[in-house]
Design a protein that fits this description.
globular, 16 helices, 462 residues, mainly alpha
Length: 462
Amino acid sequence: MASSDHTEGGNPIQRLLSRLLSPITEVRPHEAFTALLMMLNIFLIMAAYYIIKPAREAYMSLESGGAELASYASAAMAVLLLPILRGYDRVSEKYARRRLITIVTLVFISNLAIFYYLSLVEMNHLGIVFFVWVGIFNYMVVAQFWGFANDVYHEAQGERLFPLIMIGQTTGAILGPRVASWSIEWTGDTSFMLLVAGALLGLSIAITLWVDFRARSEAALSLRRSQPDDQAALAAEEKKAEKPLKATAGFRLIWEHRYLLLMACLILLLNLVNTTGEYILRSVVYAEAEAANQARDVFAGLFYSDFFFWVNVVASLIQVFLVSRIFKYLGVRKSVYILPIISLIAYGSIALVPVLTVIMVVKIAENGTDYSLMNTLRAALYLPTTREMKYKAKMAIDTFFVRAGDVISAGFVALGSEVLNFGPQGFSVVVFCVVLVWLWLVRLLTREHRRISGDDGADQVT
């Protein structure tokens, strides 16, 4: 169901909110409050995730196995996601969207309570189990939120409002680690953060229910104003959000629809490129530490503290000041080219000048754009699709195919480093070629997007 563009006037508070948000993007008065609720919702979800992450690292540090164990964990996530996604499909076929989101979120909250108890009794190998769980939790709850956002807004609204809502995701990622730090300093315990995260997720459920109620009320009001005598249309509109999704598996939707298959391949390649790029950066950081005769952990800790700070600063600046303007002047389809072009320049630069300063600068640009513009695009690209695609297919793509990219990257790194003896330049050349394939996929995807959006006279995808 989509909220409508009824009445431009609004009450004084709505008009004030609209004016306050206008430097970021165009927000009509009647849209302002719901958009802020959506922004707060994803803020809470991301803050909860980034509160959990330090606990994950703390538990994982107690495990032996290092980087290899993390790679195996990524593979385990991809395998476990198959039955989990099938279970998600079945639940979505029985319950309306607000019940679906409530049930899934409550399951994750109950999991946090269980992990809190297990940490108190010091269960063996809690680190690896929690590491896998966090990886699944993160992608599922975020994908579910953006499926809901796609369901609430129609295409024109989403392209205007998603850049604003995404600010909540960016700021949640910045504030979450600070809350985790305060929690540890206050309690002296990493486990308490799990309860804090659970409380934030509980608040997100309440906001979801509030937004769902407002969206259904606004849609019904709009229909009454536009078609006051059409009671059948009104009844059909009011029942839309009450209907469970159709009985079609998310993976089946992907295989059957060219647009979704292209999206899946694009996300897989995006993650393959980014994850391999992180390996290139990490290998050079370690080499620099050895060359400077410094302890690797101290050198890496100082470097990554600065690196993550600047990535978040760049991402925030892009999200607040550029994304809505890029959408407005370039449109969604042309905007999809920006990140692969930046990646092409990045890995071309690394291949030519494989020094730490260059790698750091281009990776800040790549990651900052990925976390802001590309994250917004990944949500907006589903606006012209069906409800089943927005929930089921998006969930499969944003979880399984992302993790599949991690697994392929791990295999590629193992082959390149152990068999082919690649250094940073060798890896960069190969990644440069992968980005060329990524650009080709973007071209195909944008053609399909034009078709299903009806811009070439075709009907919306069904």
